Protein backbone atom coordinates (compact mmCIF):
# COMPACT_ATOMS: atom_id res chain seq x y z
CA UNK A 1 0.00 0.00 0.00
CA UNK A 2 2.81 2.38 0.87
CA UNK A 3 4.49 1.84 -2.47
CA UNK A 4 1.29 2.44 -4.45
CA UNK A 5 0.63 5.70 -2.59
CA UNK A 6 4.22 6.79 -3.06
CA UNK A 7 4.08 5.97 -6.73
CA UNK A 8 1.18 8.41 -7.13
CA UNK A 9 3.12 11.32 -5.70
CA UNK A 10 4.66 13.84 -8.10
CA UNK A 11 8.35 13.66 -8.81
CA UNK A 12 9.97 16.28 -10.91
CA UNK A 13 13.46 17.19 -9.96
CA UNK A 14 13.85 18.32 -13.54
CA UNK A 15 12.35 21.58 -12.29
CA UNK A 16 14.78 21.87 -9.43
CA UNK A 17 17.49 24.49 -9.37
CA UNK A 18 20.95 23.35 -8.38
CA UNK A 19 23.42 25.83 -6.95
CA UNK A 20 26.94 24.61 -6.30
CA UNK A 21 29.24 26.70 -4.14
CA UNK A 22 32.98 26.05 -4.06
CA UNK A 23 33.12 26.04 -0.26
CA UNK A 24 30.69 25.63 2.62
CA UNK A 25 31.33 29.24 3.64
CA UNK A 26 30.38 30.43 0.14
CA UNK A 27 27.23 28.29 0.33
CA UNK A 28 26.23 29.60 3.74
CA UNK A 29 26.66 33.23 2.70
CA UNK A 30 24.62 32.65 -0.46
CA UNK A 31 21.89 30.99 1.61
CA UNK A 32 21.92 33.68 4.29
CA UNK A 33 21.64 36.57 1.86
CA UNK A 34 18.98 34.65 -0.06
CA UNK A 35 16.94 34.21 3.11
CA UNK A 36 17.20 37.92 3.83
CA UNK A 37 16.03 38.74 0.30
CA UNK A 38 13.05 36.40 0.63
CA UNK A 39 12.12 37.74 4.07
CA UNK A 40 12.27 41.36 2.95
CA UNK A 41 10.28 40.67 -0.21
CA UNK A 42 7.65 38.59 1.63
CA UNK A 43 7.17 41.23 4.33
CA UNK A 44 6.95 43.97 1.71
CA UNK A 45 4.37 41.99 -0.27
CA UNK A 46 2.26 40.42 2.49
CA UNK A 47 3.40 41.91 5.78
CA UNK A 48 4.80 38.64 7.05
CA UNK A 49 7.45 36.03 6.25
CA UNK A 50 7.11 32.42 7.34
CA UNK A 51 10.19 30.19 7.44
CA UNK A 52 10.49 26.57 8.59
CA UNK A 53 13.93 25.70 9.90
CA UNK A 54 15.73 22.41 9.58
CA UNK A 55 17.73 20.62 12.21
CA UNK A 56 21.16 19.13 11.78
CA UNK A 57 24.75 20.39 11.75
CA UNK A 58 24.73 22.14 8.36
CA UNK A 59 21.99 24.65 9.25
CA UNK A 60 23.57 25.44 12.61
CA UNK A 61 26.38 27.31 10.83
CA UNK A 62 23.84 29.11 8.64
CA UNK A 63 21.85 30.24 11.68
CA UNK A 64 25.02 31.50 13.37
CA UNK A 65 25.86 33.50 10.23
CA UNK A 66 22.36 34.99 10.17
CA UNK A 67 22.88 36.01 13.81
CA UNK A 68 25.96 38.11 13.02
CA UNK A 69 25.20 41.82 13.49
CA UNK A 70 25.74 42.69 9.82
CA UNK A 71 23.20 40.15 8.53
CA UNK A 72 20.84 40.17 11.52
CA UNK A 73 20.29 43.88 10.95
CA UNK A 74 19.03 43.12 7.44
CA UNK A 75 16.25 40.76 8.54
CA UNK A 76 12.70 42.05 9.24
CA UNK A 77 12.50 40.10 12.52
CA UNK A 78 9.35 41.86 13.75
CA UNK A 79 7.39 40.32 10.87
CA UNK A 80 9.28 37.05 10.46
CA UNK A 81 7.69 33.92 11.90
CA UNK A 82 9.90 30.93 12.57
CA UNK A 83 8.68 27.33 12.52
CA UNK A 84 10.41 23.97 12.28
CA UNK A 85 10.20 21.32 9.60
CA UNK A 86 10.72 18.63 12.19
CA UNK A 87 11.67 18.02 15.79
CA UNK A 88 12.89 15.25 17.96
CA UNK A 89 10.52 14.05 20.71
CA UNK A 90 12.53 15.75 23.44
CA UNK A 91 12.31 18.76 25.74
CA UNK A 92 13.38 22.15 24.36
CA UNK A 93 16.51 22.14 26.55
CA UNK A 94 17.61 18.73 25.31
CA UNK A 95 20.93 18.63 23.40
CA UNK A 96 18.96 16.82 20.66
CA UNK A 97 16.36 19.56 20.28
CA UNK A 98 16.24 21.33 16.90
CA UNK A 99 14.61 24.25 18.70
CA UNK A 100 17.47 24.47 21.20
CA UNK A 101 20.04 24.44 18.38
CA UNK A 102 18.29 27.23 16.47
CA UNK A 103 17.68 29.23 19.63
CA UNK A 104 21.31 29.02 20.71
CA UNK A 105 22.70 29.73 17.23
CA UNK A 106 20.23 32.40 16.10
CA UNK A 107 16.97 33.20 17.86
CA UNK A 108 18.38 34.22 21.22
CA UNK A 109 20.67 36.71 19.45
CA UNK A 110 18.14 38.59 17.30
CA UNK A 111 15.15 40.85 18.07
CA UNK A 112 12.45 38.39 17.03
CA UNK A 113 9.28 38.63 19.15
CA UNK A 114 8.71 35.47 21.20
CA UNK A 115 5.24 35.11 19.71
CA UNK A 116 6.87 34.78 16.30
CA UNK A 117 8.70 31.63 17.38
CA UNK A 118 6.48 28.60 16.80
CA UNK A 119 8.27 25.89 18.69
CA UNK A 120 7.04 22.33 18.29
CA UNK A 121 5.91 21.38 21.84
CA UNK A 122 7.95 18.18 21.83
CA UNK A 123 8.14 18.04 25.60
CA UNK A 124 4.58 16.65 25.67
CA UNK A 125 4.74 12.95 26.60
CA UNK A 126 2.61 11.70 23.71
CA UNK A 127 4.11 12.27 20.25
CA UNK A 128 0.68 12.19 18.64
CA UNK A 129 -0.42 15.01 20.92
CA UNK A 130 2.67 16.99 19.92
CA UNK A 131 1.75 16.59 16.25
CA UNK A 132 -1.84 17.72 16.83
CA UNK A 133 -0.73 20.72 18.88
CA UNK A 134 1.76 21.84 16.23
CA UNK A 135 -0.81 21.36 13.47
CA UNK A 136 -3.22 23.56 15.45
CA UNK A 137 -0.53 26.23 15.71
CA UNK A 138 -0.03 26.04 11.94
CA UNK A 139 -3.76 26.44 11.30
CA UNK A 140 -3.95 29.44 13.60
CA UNK A 141 -0.78 31.04 12.28
CA UNK A 142 -1.73 30.61 8.62
CA UNK A 143 -5.39 31.43 9.27
CA UNK A 144 -6.60 28.13 7.81
CA UNK A 145 -10.37 27.92 8.14
CA UNK A 146 -11.75 25.10 10.31
CA UNK A 147 -14.36 24.65 7.58
CA UNK A 148 -11.66 23.71 5.05
CA UNK A 149 -10.02 20.50 6.34
CA UNK A 150 -7.84 20.26 3.24
CA UNK A 151 -6.34 23.74 3.60
CA UNK A 152 -2.54 23.78 3.72
CA UNK A 153 -0.09 26.32 5.16
CA UNK A 154 2.09 27.86 2.45
CA UNK A 155 5.52 28.67 3.86
CA UNK A 156 7.55 31.36 2.15
CA UNK A 157 10.60 29.16 2.69
CA UNK A 158 11.22 25.68 4.06
CA UNK A 159 14.84 24.77 4.77
CA UNK A 160 15.65 21.07 4.55
CA UNK A 161 18.71 18.94 5.04
CA UNK A 162 19.26 15.45 3.75
CA UNK A 163 20.66 12.56 5.68
CA UNK A 164 23.11 10.01 4.25
CA UNK A 165 20.15 7.63 4.04
CA UNK A 166 18.22 10.06 1.87
CA UNK A 167 15.82 11.17 4.59
CA UNK A 168 14.69 14.76 4.87
CA UNK A 169 12.95 16.52 7.72
CA UNK A 170 11.96 13.44 9.71
CA UNK A 171 10.68 11.54 6.70
CA UNK A 172 12.88 8.47 6.98
CA UNK A 173 13.04 5.56 4.54
CA UNK A 174 10.07 3.20 4.78
CA UNK A 175 8.57 5.17 7.69
CA UNK A 176 4.80 5.57 8.02
CA UNK A 177 4.78 9.36 7.55
CA UNK A 178 5.80 8.91 3.90
CA UNK A 179 2.19 7.93 3.26
CA UNK A 180 0.57 10.64 5.38
CA UNK A 181 -1.26 12.75 2.82
CA UNK A 182 -3.94 14.34 5.01
CA UNK A 183 -2.50 15.55 8.33
CA UNK A 184 -0.26 18.63 8.40
CA UNK A 185 2.06 17.11 10.98
CA UNK A 186 2.92 13.50 11.74
CA UNK A 187 4.40 11.66 14.70
CA UNK A 188 6.68 9.35 12.77
CA UNK A 189 8.18 6.22 14.38
CA UNK A 190 11.78 5.83 13.18
CA UNK A 191 12.71 2.23 13.80
CA UNK A 192 16.43 2.55 13.19
CA UNK A 193 16.68 5.38 15.72
CA UNK A 194 14.31 3.66 18.15
CA UNK A 195 12.39 6.89 18.55
CA UNK A 196 9.46 8.88 17.24
CA UNK A 197 10.06 12.14 15.40
CA UNK A 198 7.62 14.97 14.70
CA UNK A 199 7.59 16.13 11.09
CA UNK A 200 5.77 18.29 8.59
CA UNK A 201 4.12 16.00 6.09
CA UNK A 202 4.63 15.90 2.33
CA UNK A 203 1.48 17.88 1.49
CA UNK A 204 2.78 20.78 3.61
CA UNK A 205 6.38 20.52 2.39
CA UNK A 206 5.22 20.42 -1.24
CA UNK A 207 2.88 23.38 -0.79
CA UNK A 208 5.67 25.83 0.08
CA UNK A 209 6.58 28.77 -2.12
CA UNK A 210 10.23 27.73 -1.82
CA UNK A 211 11.99 24.62 -0.56
CA UNK A 212 15.75 24.76 -0.19
CA UNK A 213 17.90 21.74 0.52
CA UNK A 214 21.20 22.68 2.17
CA UNK A 215 23.56 19.76 1.60
CA UNK A 216 27.28 19.78 2.29
CA UNK A 217 30.11 17.31 2.64
CA UNK A 218 31.42 14.42 0.62
CA UNK A 219 29.46 12.00 2.78
CA UNK A 220 26.28 13.13 1.01
CA UNK A 221 27.67 12.92 -2.55
CA UNK A 222 26.56 9.38 -3.35
CA UNK A 223 23.08 9.63 -1.86
CA UNK A 224 22.55 13.01 -3.54
CA UNK A 225 23.43 11.48 -6.90
CA UNK A 226 20.95 8.66 -6.19
CA UNK A 227 18.24 11.15 -5.23
CA UNK A 228 18.72 13.45 -8.20
CA UNK A 229 19.90 11.12 -10.94
CA UNK A 230 19.10 7.61 -9.78
CA UNK A 231 15.90 5.62 -10.28
CA UNK A 232 12.76 6.76 -8.49
CA UNK A 233 12.76 4.88 -5.20
CA UNK A 234 11.08 7.31 -2.78
CA UNK A 235 10.46 4.72 -0.10
CA UNK A 236 14.26 4.33 0.02
CA UNK A 237 15.13 7.96 -0.74
CA UNK A 238 12.35 10.13 0.74
CA UNK A 239 14.08 13.31 -0.46
CA UNK A 240 12.83 12.31 -3.92
CA UNK A 241 9.32 13.09 -2.71
CA UNK A 242 10.04 16.79 -2.26
CA UNK A 243 8.57 18.46 -5.33
CA UNK A 244 6.66 21.70 -4.66
CA UNK A 245 3.48 21.75 -6.77
CA UNK A 246 3.61 25.53 -7.14
CA UNK A 247 6.92 26.62 -5.75
CA UNK A 248 10.66 26.71 -6.18
CA UNK A 249 12.89 23.77 -5.30
CA UNK A 250 16.58 24.48 -4.94
CA UNK A 251 19.48 22.28 -3.92
CA UNK A 252 22.19 24.44 -2.36
CA UNK A 253 25.33 22.35 -2.42
CA UNK A 254 28.99 22.71 -1.72
CA UNK A 255 31.40 21.23 -4.24
CA UNK A 256 32.09 18.10 -2.18
CA UNK A 257 28.41 17.21 -1.86
CA UNK A 258 28.01 17.77 -5.62
CA UNK A 259 31.08 15.70 -6.52
CA UNK A 260 29.14 12.64 -7.78
CA UNK A 261 26.64 14.58 -9.89
CA UNK A 262 26.85 14.24 -13.65
CA UNK A 263 28.47 16.87 -15.89
CA UNK A 264 24.95 17.57 -17.15
CA UNK A 265 23.78 18.66 -13.71
CA UNK A 266 26.98 20.59 -13.10
CA UNK A 267 26.50 22.37 -16.42
CA UNK A 268 22.91 23.20 -15.50
CA UNK A 269 23.78 24.55 -12.06
CA UNK A 270 22.77 28.16 -11.50
CA UNK A 271 25.19 30.85 -10.42
CA UNK A 272 22.87 32.49 -7.93
CA UNK A 273 19.46 32.34 -6.26
CA UNK A 274 16.26 33.86 -7.54
C1 LIG B 1 17.13 16.63 11.93
C2 LIG B 1 17.00 17.20 10.55
C3 LIG B 1 17.45 16.19 9.56
C4 LIG B 1 18.72 16.75 8.95
C5 LIG B 1 19.48 15.70 8.19
C6 LIG B 1 20.81 16.27 7.67
O1 LIG B 1 16.22 16.78 12.74
O2 LIG B 1 18.21 16.08 12.16
O3 LIG B 1 15.82 17.76 10.29
O4 LIG B 1 16.53 15.90 8.55
O5 LIG B 1 18.40 17.81 8.08
O6 LIG B 1 19.73 14.63 9.07
O7 LIG B 1 21.54 16.73 8.77
P1 LIG B 1 23.00 17.39 8.53
O8 LIG B 1 22.78 18.63 7.73
O9 LIG B 1 23.51 17.64 9.92
O10 LIG B 1 23.81 16.38 7.78
Low-confidence stretches: 1-12
Strand content: 15-25%
Heteromolecules bound: 6-phosphogluconic acid
Structural class: alpha/beta
Helical stretch tally: 9
Order of neighbouring strands in the sheet with most strands: 1-9-8-5-2-3
Largest sheet: 6 strands, parallel
Helix-strand string: HEHEHHEEHHEEEHEHEH
Note the gap between the termini. Answer: 38 Å
* Rg, Å, rounded: 17 Å
Bulk shape = globular
- Determine the mean pLDDT: 93
Helical percentage: 25-40%
What's the count of strands? 9
Characterize the structure shown.
By secondary structure, this protein is of the alpha/beta class. Helices cover 31% and strands 17% of the residues. The chain has nine helices and nine strands. It has helices at 2-8, 24-46, 57-66, 69-72, 98-105, 127-141, 202-205, 221-229, 263-268, and strands at residues 17-21, 49-53, 80-84, 86-88, 157-160, 185-190, 195-200, 210-215, 248-254. The strands form two sheets. It has a six-stranded parallel sheet with strand order 1-9-8-5-2-3. Strand 8 (210-215), helix 8 (221-229) and strand 9 form a beta-alpha-beta unit. It is globular and about 50 Å long. The structure holds 6-phosphogluconic acid. 6-phosphogluconic acid binds at residues 54-58, 86, 98, 161-163, 167-170.
Amino acid sequence: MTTSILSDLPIDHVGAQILISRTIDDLLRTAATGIIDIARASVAAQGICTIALSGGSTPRRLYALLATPELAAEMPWQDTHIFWGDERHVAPDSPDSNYRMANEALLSHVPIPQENIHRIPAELPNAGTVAVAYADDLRRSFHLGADDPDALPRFDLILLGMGEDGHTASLFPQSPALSELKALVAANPVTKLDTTRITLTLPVLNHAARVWFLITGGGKAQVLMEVLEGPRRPEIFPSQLISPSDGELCFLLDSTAAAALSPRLHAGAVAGLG
